[in-house]
Amino acid sequence: MKKILVTGGAGFIGSHLCERLLKEGNEVLCLDNYFTGSKRNILHLMDNPYFELIRHDITEPYFAEVDEIYNLACPASPIHYQYDPIKTINTSVVGATNMLGLAKRVNAKILQASTSEVYGDPKIHPQPETYWGNVNPIGLRSCYDEGKRCAESLFVNYHKQKDVRIKIIRIFNTYGTRMNINDGRVISNFIVQALKGEDITIYGDGSQTRSFQYVDDLVEGMIRMMNTDDTVTGPVNIGNPGEYSILELACEIIRLTGSSSTIIFKELPEDDPMQRKPDIRLAREILNNWEPTIELEQGLLKVIAYFKEILAEG
Ligand code: NAD
Ligand code: UDP
User: Could you tell me which residues come within 8 angstroms of residue 230 by beta carbon, excluding any fewer than 6 positions away?
Assistant: First the structure.
Protein backbone atom coordinates (compact mmCIF):
# COMPACT_ATOMS: atom_id res chain seq x y z
CA MET A 1 0.00 0.00 0.00
CA LYS A 2 1.48 3.38 -1.06
CA LYS A 3 1.01 6.55 1.01
CA ILE A 4 0.08 9.33 -1.38
CA LEU A 5 -0.27 13.05 -0.70
CA VAL A 6 -2.66 14.98 -2.96
CA THR A 7 -2.42 18.75 -2.51
CA GLY A 8 -5.59 20.51 -3.64
CA GLY A 9 -7.33 17.18 -3.00
CA ALA A 10 -10.68 18.77 -2.14
CA GLY A 11 -10.83 20.55 -5.49
CA PHE A 12 -12.51 19.44 -8.69
CA ILE A 13 -9.67 17.33 -10.18
CA GLY A 14 -8.11 16.48 -6.81
CA SER A 15 -11.29 14.85 -5.50
CA HIS A 16 -11.50 12.55 -8.54
CA LEU A 17 -7.83 11.68 -8.18
CA CYS A 18 -8.20 10.88 -4.43
CA GLU A 19 -11.19 8.65 -5.22
CA ARG A 20 -9.29 6.73 -7.89
CA LEU A 21 -6.12 6.33 -5.77
CA LEU A 22 -8.20 4.95 -2.88
CA LYS A 23 -9.95 2.52 -5.25
CA GLU A 24 -6.54 1.23 -6.28
CA GLY A 25 -5.77 0.37 -2.65
CA ASN A 26 -3.58 3.29 -1.63
CA GLU A 27 -3.57 5.38 1.52
CA VAL A 28 -4.43 8.97 0.59
CA LEU A 29 -3.62 12.18 2.44
CA CYS A 30 -5.78 14.94 1.02
CA LEU A 31 -4.39 18.41 1.78
CA ASP A 32 -6.37 21.58 1.04
CA ASN A 33 -6.95 25.11 2.33
CA TYR A 34 -10.53 25.13 0.85
CA PHE A 35 -9.98 28.30 -1.15
CA THR A 36 -11.84 26.91 -4.16
CA GLY A 37 -12.29 23.32 -3.05
CA SER A 38 -14.90 22.03 -0.66
CA LYS A 39 -15.53 19.22 1.78
CA ARG A 40 -18.59 18.31 -0.25
CA ASN A 41 -16.31 17.01 -3.02
CA ILE A 42 -14.75 14.42 -0.73
CA LEU A 43 -17.55 13.77 1.74
CA HIS A 44 -18.15 10.34 0.21
CA LEU A 45 -14.53 9.35 0.96
CA MET A 46 -14.54 10.34 4.63
CA ASP A 47 -15.67 6.92 5.89
CA ASN A 48 -12.68 5.23 4.29
CA PRO A 49 -10.06 4.57 7.02
CA TYR A 50 -7.30 4.99 4.42
CA PHE A 51 -8.39 8.54 3.63
CA GLU A 52 -7.09 11.43 5.71
CA LEU A 53 -8.01 15.08 5.42
CA ILE A 54 -5.54 17.86 6.26
CA ARG A 55 -6.45 21.54 6.37
CA HIS A 56 -3.25 23.26 5.34
CA ASP A 57 -1.93 25.95 3.01
CA ILE A 58 1.01 24.80 0.87
CA THR A 59 2.65 28.21 1.09
CA GLU A 60 3.59 26.97 4.59
CA PRO A 61 5.94 23.99 4.97
CA TYR A 62 4.31 20.63 5.59
CA PHE A 63 5.81 17.33 6.65
CA ALA A 64 4.56 13.74 6.30
CA GLU A 65 6.13 10.43 5.37
CA VAL A 66 4.75 9.69 1.91
CA ASP A 67 5.78 7.74 -1.20
CA GLU A 68 4.23 9.99 -3.82
CA ILE A 69 2.99 13.58 -4.05
CA TYR A 70 0.52 14.95 -6.60
CA ASN A 71 0.81 18.74 -6.41
CA LEU A 72 -2.54 20.18 -7.54
CA ALA A 73 -3.08 22.98 -5.02
CA CYS A 74 -3.70 26.19 -6.97
CA PRO A 75 -6.86 28.01 -8.05
CA ALA A 76 -7.40 27.21 -11.73
CA SER A 77 -10.26 29.40 -12.89
CA PRO A 78 -9.36 32.93 -14.10
CA ILE A 79 -11.81 34.66 -11.71
CA HIS A 80 -10.37 32.78 -8.75
CA TYR A 81 -6.69 33.03 -9.59
CA GLN A 82 -7.09 36.74 -10.35
CA TYR A 83 -8.84 37.38 -7.02
CA ASP A 84 -5.50 37.57 -5.13
CA PRO A 85 -2.76 37.41 -7.77
CA ILE A 86 0.14 37.60 -5.29
CA LYS A 87 -1.28 34.66 -3.36
CA THR A 88 -1.65 32.74 -6.63
CA ILE A 89 2.01 33.29 -7.47
CA ASN A 90 3.03 32.24 -3.96
CA THR A 91 0.89 29.12 -4.13
CA SER A 92 2.64 28.07 -7.34
CA VAL A 93 6.16 29.11 -6.42
CA VAL A 94 6.48 28.91 -2.61
CA GLY A 95 4.02 26.00 -2.57
CA ALA A 96 6.05 24.07 -5.16
CA THR A 97 9.26 24.78 -3.24
CA ASN A 98 7.70 23.42 -0.04
CA MET A 99 6.41 20.29 -1.75
CA LEU A 100 9.70 19.69 -3.57
CA GLY A 101 11.53 20.11 -0.24
CA LEU A 102 9.22 17.50 1.26
CA ALA A 103 9.78 15.15 -1.70
CA LYS A 104 13.53 15.48 -1.28
CA ARG A 105 13.41 14.90 2.47
CA VAL A 106 11.28 11.74 2.32
CA ASN A 107 12.50 10.58 -1.12
CA ALA A 108 9.00 10.74 -2.63
CA LYS A 109 8.16 10.96 -6.33
CA ILE A 110 6.37 14.22 -7.10
CA LEU A 111 4.04 15.17 -9.95
CA GLN A 112 3.27 18.77 -10.84
CA ALA A 113 -0.13 19.72 -12.28
CA SER A 114 1.11 22.28 -14.79
CA THR A 115 -1.06 23.76 -17.48
CA SER A 116 -1.53 24.55 -21.16
CA GLU A 117 -1.45 28.19 -19.95
CA VAL A 118 2.36 27.94 -20.03
CA TYR A 119 1.90 28.30 -23.83
CA GLY A 120 0.01 31.58 -23.30
CA ASP A 121 -1.71 32.82 -26.48
CA PRO A 122 0.08 30.29 -28.70
CA LYS A 123 1.51 31.10 -32.10
CA ILE A 124 1.99 27.40 -32.90
CA HIS A 125 -1.01 25.14 -33.35
CA PRO A 126 -1.52 22.49 -32.00
CA GLN A 127 0.91 22.97 -29.12
CA PRO A 128 3.76 20.45 -28.70
CA GLU A 129 5.79 20.29 -25.48
CA THR A 130 8.78 21.73 -27.35
CA TYR A 131 6.96 25.06 -27.87
CA TRP A 132 8.14 27.72 -25.40
CA GLY A 133 4.93 29.71 -25.50
CA ASN A 134 3.77 33.29 -25.87
CA VAL A 135 3.00 34.62 -22.40
CA ASN A 136 2.49 38.23 -21.35
CA PRO A 137 4.64 38.39 -18.17
CA ILE A 138 2.73 41.37 -16.72
CA GLY A 139 -0.82 40.72 -17.92
CA LEU A 140 -3.95 39.69 -15.98
CA ARG A 141 -3.19 36.02 -16.46
CA SER A 142 0.50 36.26 -15.59
CA CYS A 143 0.06 35.41 -11.90
CA TYR A 144 -1.13 31.98 -12.98
CA ASP A 145 0.89 31.48 -16.18
CA GLU A 146 4.22 32.71 -14.85
CA GLY A 147 3.64 31.03 -11.47
CA LYS A 148 3.15 27.70 -13.24
CA ARG A 149 6.15 28.33 -15.53
CA CYS A 150 8.33 29.09 -12.53
CA ALA A 151 7.06 25.94 -10.79
CA GLU A 152 8.10 23.90 -13.84
CA SER A 153 11.56 25.43 -13.61
CA LEU A 154 11.74 24.64 -9.88
CA PHE A 155 10.75 21.02 -10.58
CA VAL A 156 13.37 20.61 -13.30
CA ASN A 157 16.08 22.16 -11.14
CA TYR A 158 15.24 20.11 -8.03
CA HIS A 159 15.59 17.10 -10.31
CA LYS A 160 18.94 18.20 -11.77
CA GLN A 161 20.46 19.67 -8.63
CA LYS A 162 19.01 17.47 -5.88
CA ASP A 163 18.00 14.24 -7.69
CA VAL A 164 14.31 14.60 -6.82
CA ARG A 165 12.18 12.26 -8.94
CA ILE A 166 9.79 14.57 -10.79
CA LYS A 167 6.93 14.35 -13.29
CA ILE A 168 5.41 17.39 -15.01
CA ILE A 169 2.11 17.22 -16.86
CA ARG A 170 0.58 20.12 -18.77
CA ILE A 171 -3.16 19.82 -18.37
CA PHE A 172 -5.44 21.24 -21.08
CA ASN A 173 -8.98 22.47 -20.26
CA THR A 174 -10.60 19.77 -18.15
CA TYR A 175 -14.24 19.53 -17.09
CA GLY A 176 -16.41 17.12 -15.17
CA THR A 177 -18.65 16.56 -12.19
CA ARG A 178 -17.72 18.43 -8.98
CA MET A 179 -16.74 21.60 -10.77
CA ASN A 180 -17.73 24.42 -8.48
CA ILE A 181 -21.05 25.99 -9.53
CA ASN A 182 -19.38 29.42 -9.18
CA ASP A 183 -16.16 28.25 -10.80
CA GLY A 184 -16.44 30.79 -13.61
CA ARG A 185 -14.97 28.50 -16.27
CA VAL A 186 -16.79 28.17 -19.53
CA ILE A 187 -18.39 24.74 -19.28
CA SER A 188 -19.79 25.20 -15.77
CA ASN A 189 -20.95 28.75 -16.59
CA PHE A 190 -22.75 27.73 -19.80
CA ILE A 191 -24.41 24.64 -18.30
CA VAL A 192 -25.63 26.47 -15.21
CA GLN A 193 -26.88 29.39 -17.34
CA ALA A 194 -28.64 26.98 -19.72
CA LEU A 195 -30.29 25.03 -16.90
CA LYS A 196 -31.49 28.24 -15.24
CA GLY A 197 -32.74 29.65 -18.54
CA GLU A 198 -30.41 32.63 -18.15
CA ASP A 199 -28.47 34.33 -20.96
CA ILE A 200 -25.39 32.42 -22.07
CA THR A 201 -22.43 34.79 -21.82
CA ILE A 202 -19.90 34.44 -24.61
CA TYR A 203 -16.79 36.59 -24.11
CA GLY A 204 -15.68 38.06 -27.43
CA ASP A 205 -17.27 36.76 -30.65
CA GLY A 206 -16.93 33.11 -29.62
CA SER A 207 -14.44 32.25 -32.37
CA GLN A 208 -11.67 31.46 -29.84
CA THR A 209 -11.13 27.71 -29.48
CA ARG A 210 -10.45 25.28 -26.64
CA SER A 211 -10.03 21.50 -26.40
CA PHE A 212 -12.05 19.95 -23.60
CA GLN A 213 -10.99 16.85 -21.72
CA TYR A 214 -13.23 14.86 -19.37
CA VAL A 215 -11.73 14.50 -15.89
CA ASP A 216 -11.60 10.67 -15.93
CA ASP A 217 -9.28 10.73 -18.95
CA LEU A 218 -7.00 13.18 -17.16
CA VAL A 219 -6.86 11.11 -13.96
CA GLU A 220 -5.91 8.04 -16.00
CA GLY A 221 -3.11 10.03 -17.67
CA MET A 222 -1.88 11.44 -14.34
CA ILE A 223 -1.59 8.01 -12.75
CA ARG A 224 0.12 6.54 -15.80
CA MET A 225 2.59 9.43 -15.71
CA MET A 226 3.35 8.90 -12.01
CA ASN A 227 4.01 5.22 -12.76
CA THR A 228 6.52 5.83 -15.56
CA ASP A 229 10.14 4.99 -14.76
CA ASP A 230 12.34 7.59 -13.11
CA THR A 231 13.96 8.70 -16.38
CA VAL A 232 10.61 10.11 -17.57
CA THR A 233 10.15 13.60 -16.18
CA GLY A 234 8.01 15.37 -18.79
CA PRO A 235 6.65 17.88 -19.39
CA VAL A 236 3.93 16.01 -21.21
CA ASN A 237 0.63 17.39 -22.52
CA ILE A 238 -2.51 15.69 -21.20
CA GLY A 239 -5.62 16.83 -23.03
CA ASN A 240 -8.25 15.95 -25.58
CA PRO A 241 -7.33 17.20 -29.07
CA GLY A 242 -10.98 17.69 -30.11
CA GLU A 243 -11.12 21.46 -30.77
CA TYR A 244 -14.29 23.58 -30.53
CA SER A 245 -15.00 27.28 -30.80
CA ILE A 246 -16.71 28.77 -27.74
CA LEU A 247 -19.74 29.55 -29.94
CA GLU A 248 -19.95 25.88 -30.98
CA LEU A 249 -19.74 24.89 -27.32
CA ALA A 250 -22.59 27.24 -26.38
CA CYS A 251 -24.80 25.83 -29.17
CA GLU A 252 -24.00 22.24 -28.14
CA ILE A 253 -24.92 22.95 -24.50
CA ILE A 254 -28.19 24.61 -25.55
CA ARG A 255 -29.00 21.55 -27.70
CA LEU A 256 -28.14 19.01 -24.98
CA THR A 257 -30.04 20.83 -22.22
CA GLY A 258 -32.99 21.74 -24.48
CA SER A 259 -32.65 25.22 -22.99
CA SER A 260 -34.47 28.33 -24.16
CA SER A 261 -31.51 30.52 -23.17
CA THR A 262 -30.28 33.22 -25.53
CA ILE A 263 -26.62 33.74 -26.36
CA ILE A 264 -25.25 37.19 -25.51
CA PHE A 265 -21.79 38.57 -26.25
CA LYS A 266 -19.60 40.35 -23.69
CA GLU A 267 -16.15 41.89 -23.85
CA LEU A 268 -13.24 39.47 -24.32
CA PRO A 269 -10.95 39.59 -21.25
CA GLU A 270 -7.33 40.74 -21.68
CA ASP A 271 -4.88 38.14 -23.05
CA ASP A 272 -7.60 35.51 -23.58
CA PRO A 273 -5.87 32.88 -25.79
CA MET A 274 -7.36 32.66 -29.31
CA GLN A 275 -6.76 28.96 -29.87
CA ARG A 276 -5.68 25.94 -27.91
CA LYS A 277 -5.27 22.31 -28.82
CA PRO A 278 -2.82 19.77 -27.40
CA ASP A 279 -0.39 17.76 -29.46
CA ILE A 280 -0.59 14.46 -27.53
CA ARG A 281 1.89 12.37 -29.50
CA LEU A 282 4.33 12.31 -26.57
CA ALA A 283 1.63 11.20 -24.10
CA ARG A 284 0.62 8.35 -26.41
CA GLU A 285 4.23 7.27 -26.70
CA ILE A 286 5.32 7.36 -23.06
CA LEU A 287 2.03 6.53 -21.33
CA ASN A 288 1.26 3.15 -22.94
CA ASN A 289 -0.93 4.50 -25.72
CA TRP A 290 -2.92 6.71 -23.36
CA GLU A 291 -5.75 8.33 -25.30
CA PRO A 292 -8.80 10.36 -24.26
CA THR A 293 -11.85 8.11 -24.47
CA ILE A 294 -14.77 10.38 -23.53
CA GLU A 295 -16.34 12.40 -26.33
CA LEU A 296 -17.55 15.94 -25.62
CA GLU A 297 -21.26 15.07 -25.86
CA GLN A 298 -20.89 12.13 -23.46
CA GLY A 299 -18.95 14.22 -20.94
CA LEU A 300 -21.30 17.20 -21.18
CA LEU A 301 -24.30 14.97 -20.48
CA LYS A 302 -22.67 13.77 -17.24
CA VAL A 303 -21.99 17.35 -16.11
CA ILE A 304 -25.49 18.49 -17.08
CA ALA A 305 -26.96 15.69 -14.91
CA TYR A 306 -24.61 16.70 -12.06
CA PHE A 307 -25.56 20.39 -12.14
CA LYS A 308 -29.28 19.51 -12.39
CA GLU A 309 -28.86 17.66 -9.08
CA ILE A 310 -26.93 20.52 -7.46
CA LEU A 311 -29.51 23.10 -8.59
CA ALA A 312 -32.36 20.91 -7.33
CA GLU A 313 -30.68 20.83 -3.88
CA GLY A 314 -30.92 24.63 -3.95
P1 NAD B 1 -9.83 23.71 -8.19
O2 NAD B 1 -9.82 25.15 -7.91
O3 NAD B 1 -11.11 22.97 -8.11
O4 NAD B 1 -8.79 22.95 -7.24
C5 NAD B 1 -7.68 23.55 -6.64
C6 NAD B 1 -7.63 23.11 -5.18
O7 NAD B 1 -6.47 23.67 -4.56
C8 NAD B 1 -8.82 23.63 -4.38
O9 NAD B 1 -9.36 22.61 -3.60
C10 NAD B 1 -8.24 24.75 -3.52
O11 NAD B 1 -8.94 24.96 -2.33
C12 NAD B 1 -6.83 24.23 -3.30
N13 NAD B 1 -5.85 25.29 -3.00
C14 NAD B 1 -5.67 26.47 -3.65
N15 NAD B 1 -4.64 27.15 -3.10
C16 NAD B 1 -4.16 26.37 -2.10
C17 NAD B 1 -3.11 26.52 -1.15
N18 NAD B 1 -2.35 27.63 -1.13
N19 NAD B 1 -2.90 25.53 -0.25
C20 NAD B 1 -3.67 24.42 -0.25
N21 NAD B 1 -4.68 24.22 -1.11
C22 NAD B 1 -4.92 25.18 -2.02
O23 NAD B 1 -9.16 23.52 -9.63
P24 NAD B 1 -8.89 22.23 -10.50
O25 NAD B 1 -9.49 22.47 -11.82
O26 NAD B 1 -9.24 21.00 -9.77
O27 NAD B 1 -7.31 22.32 -10.69
C28 NAD B 1 -6.41 21.49 -10.00
C29 NAD B 1 -5.01 21.71 -10.53
O30 NAD B 1 -4.94 21.37 -11.92
C31 NAD B 1 -4.52 23.15 -10.42
O32 NAD B 1 -3.15 23.15 -10.05
C33 NAD B 1 -4.67 23.69 -11.80
O34 NAD B 1 -3.76 24.72 -12.07
C35 NAD B 1 -4.40 22.46 -12.64
N36 NAD B 1 -5.05 22.59 -13.97
C37 NAD B 1 -6.40 22.47 -14.10
C38 NAD B 1 -6.98 22.62 -15.36
C39 NAD B 1 -8.46 22.48 -15.57
O40 NAD B 1 -8.90 22.69 -16.69
N41 NAD B 1 -9.26 22.14 -14.61
C42 NAD B 1 -6.17 22.91 -16.46
C43 NAD B 1 -4.81 23.05 -16.27
C44 NAD B 1 -4.25 22.86 -15.02
N1 UDP C 1 -15.70 32.13 -21.61
C2 UDP C 1 -16.90 32.64 -22.10
N3 UDP C 1 -17.95 32.78 -21.23
C4 UDP C 1 -17.87 32.40 -19.92
C5 UDP C 1 -16.65 31.88 -19.44
C6 UDP C 1 -15.58 31.77 -20.32
O7 UDP C 1 -17.02 32.97 -23.28
O8 UDP C 1 -18.88 32.56 -19.21
C9 UDP C 1 -14.58 31.98 -22.57
C10 UDP C 1 -13.27 32.58 -22.09
O11 UDP C 1 -13.18 33.94 -22.43
C12 UDP C 1 -12.27 31.72 -22.84
C13 UDP C 1 -12.95 30.36 -22.93
O14 UDP C 1 -14.33 30.59 -22.71
O15 UDP C 1 -12.08 32.21 -24.14
C16 UDP C 1 -12.44 29.36 -21.89
O17 UDP C 1 -12.50 30.01 -20.64
P18 UDP C 1 -12.15 29.27 -19.27
O19 UDP C 1 -12.15 30.32 -18.21
O20 UDP C 1 -13.01 28.08 -19.10
O21 UDP C 1 -10.68 28.69 -19.49
P22 UDP C 1 -9.31 29.33 -20.05
O23 UDP C 1 -9.57 30.64 -20.70
O24 UDP C 1 -8.45 29.46 -18.85
O25 UDP C 1 -8.86 28.32 -21.03
Answer: 109, 165
Question: If we measure between CA atoms, which residue out of 52, 60, 65, 66 comes closest to residue 33?
Answer: 60
Is residue 175 among the annotated active site residues?
no
Residues with CB under 6 A from ligand 2: 77-78, 173, 185-186, 189, 201-203, 208, 210, 246, 269, 272
Where does the pLDDT of residue 314 fall: very low under 50, low under 70, confident under 90, or very high at 90 and above? Answer: confident
Three-state DSSP class for 269? coil
Domains with residue ranges and CATH for the chain: 3-175+215-241+276-292 (3.40.50.720)
Task: Find the ligand nearest to 210 CA.
Answer: 2
**For 119-152, what is each residue's pLDDT tens digit?**
999 999 999 999 999 999 999 999 999 999 999 9
- Ligand 2 atom with the smallest distance to the CA of 193 is 8
Q: What whole-number distance in Å separates Cα of residue 114 and Cα of residue 111?
A: 9
